[in-house]
């Protein structure tokens, strides 16, 4: 593949010597889409690592998350999201799908501008240069049995009509770096009738549709008990799932569900560091790859903000279970790093709904010791597996340079505001 001076670039179609790599001498890759983000949770990373119950799980973690979410307002939302997006850009993520459900005031009353929290995210993305797919979340019920939202969930909730009004009000904000899509929090949070009505309202519109699904064994069991089917099984039977859809987590699948998702054209958003942190389980990657399924990665709760770590731990989890090496490879491409990076890039670009995202460029540090003597046939293996030093040098999004020499151009100001905000959030 040649030396760095040959301007080699890796994009969704593989290696080529043209394109944005020629901006700067060295290796470059297309920026990675981050398919699943709850921006406010970056501020609570590291705060849930003390045992609160002998069988701590996602469900006990969720109690802390609710308490923390109750403190976030539009100003703190902006400060946390700006810090997060700057970190993502420095790590090589250039677009993010923001699965946004902190809509209202903590007591559930709408802000005077019902899009205030959404617009804080839009402003943070604009100011940092992050490409944003904003996915306001429909959240209506507290479980498959249709029970009302709990007190701490009220700020998440919408009627279907109010949700549609929010989407209509946000759509005019769309631009070449901002897409507006929709998200269903989960099957347990959206009753079947509302799901059908929303999908009819969306019609054939080419916009991203994302949903949490099959993340927890308890969720699967409750869905089977009350709807007579597993979550993915039920969704595939009751909705026209197609390339617009991203199924977030989809951790607990049977063989028919693996084949069904792959055949539908939907993308699975896998979030390995969050799924590990919460004890969720492991996605059946090898079977899904064999079925030809589309997938990408997300950093979700942001205990880590690194595409490299998401890809590495996706592979390592499979190795631990199967007790062998190099799982995510294909017959034509024996490089694990190239398969991981390429498949996540292609699936991510499909799911983020951003036509220009394939042109965003991450220039790597060709002088880094980890890349000494690198060639195209080992460059991506080194990027993913050769240590923990970030190898990103420069980042361009939509023609705008946002990272130079490994630093976001506005890093210091963003970090100061974030630090002040975090201290205030944790003051009592």
UniProtKB/TrEMBL annotation:
The keyword Metal-binding applies. Its cofactor is Zn(2+). Keywords: Hydrolase, Metal-binding, Zinc. InterPro entries: Amidohydro-rel, HutF, Metal-dep_hydrolase_composite, Metal_Hydrolase, Metallo-dep_hydrolases. One of its GO terms (molecular function) is metal ion binding. It holds the Pfam family Amidohydro_1. PANTHER family: AMIDOHYDROLASE-RELATED DOMAIN-CONTAINING PROTEIN, GUANINE DEAMINASE. One of its GO terms (cellular component) is cytosol. Gene3D superfamilies: Metal-dependent hydrolases, Urease, subunit C, domain 1. Residues 31-319 form the Amidohydrolase-related domain. It comes from Arenimonas composti TR7-09 = DSM 18010. This is Amidohydrolase-related domain-containing protein. The lineage of its organism: Bacteria, Pseudomonadati, Pseudomonadota, Gammaproteobacteria, Lysobacterales. NCBIfam families: hutF, PRK09229.1-2, PRK09229.1-5. The keyword Metal-binding applies.
């Amino acid at each position: 593949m040649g030396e760095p001076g040959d301007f080699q670039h890796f994009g969704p179609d593989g290696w080529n010597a043209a394109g944005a790599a020629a901006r700067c001498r060295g290796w470059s890759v297309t920026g990675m889409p981050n398919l699943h983000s709850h921006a406010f949770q970056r501020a609570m990373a590291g705060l849930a690592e003390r045992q609160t119950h002998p069988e701590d799980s996602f469900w006990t973690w969720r109690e802390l998350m609710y308490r923390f979410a109750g403190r976030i307002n539009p100003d703190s939302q902006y400060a946390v999201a700006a810090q997060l997006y700057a970190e993502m850009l420095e790590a090589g993520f250039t677009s993010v799908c923001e699965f946004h459900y902190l809509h209202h005031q903590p007591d559930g009353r709408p802000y005077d501008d019902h899009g205030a929290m959404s617009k804080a995210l839009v402003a943070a993305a604009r100011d940092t240069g992050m490409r944003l797919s904003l996915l306001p979340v429909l959240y209506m019920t507290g479980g498959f049995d249709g029970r009302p939202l709990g007190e701490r969930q009220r700020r998440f909730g919408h009627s279907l009509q109010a949700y549609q009004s929010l989407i209509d009000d946000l759509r005019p904000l769309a631009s070449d770096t901002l897409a507006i899509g929709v998200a269903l929090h989960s099957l347990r949070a959206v009753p079947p009738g509302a799901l059908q009505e929303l999908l009819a309202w969306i019609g054939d519109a080419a916009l991203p549709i994302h949903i949490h699904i099959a993340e927890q064994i308890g969720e699967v069991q409750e869905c089977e008990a009350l709807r007579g089917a597993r979550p993915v099984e039920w969704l595939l039977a009751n909705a026209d799932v197609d390339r617009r859809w991203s199924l977030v987590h989809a951790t607990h699948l049977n063989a028919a569900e693996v084949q069904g998702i792959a055949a539908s054209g939907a993308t699975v958003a896998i979030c390995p560091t969050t799924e590990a942190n919460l004890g969720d389980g492991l996605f059946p990657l090898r079977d899904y790859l064999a079925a030809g399924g589309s997938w990408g990665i997300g950093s979700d709760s942001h205990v880590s903000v690194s595409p490299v770590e998401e890809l590495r731990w996706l592979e390592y989890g499979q190795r631990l279970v199967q007790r062998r090496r190099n799982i995510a490879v294909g017959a034509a491409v024996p490089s694990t790093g190239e398969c991981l990076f390429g498949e996540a890039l292609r699936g991510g670009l499909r799911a983020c709904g951003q036509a220009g995202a394939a042109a965003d460029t991450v220039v790597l540090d060709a002088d880094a010791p980890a890349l000494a003597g690198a060639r195209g046939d080992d460059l991506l293996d080194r990027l993913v597996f050769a240590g923990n030093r970030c190898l990103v040098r420069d980042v361009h999004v939509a023609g705008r340079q946002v990272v130079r020499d490994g630093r976001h151009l506005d890093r210091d100001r963003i970090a100061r505001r974030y630090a002040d905000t975090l201290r205030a959030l944790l003051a009592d």
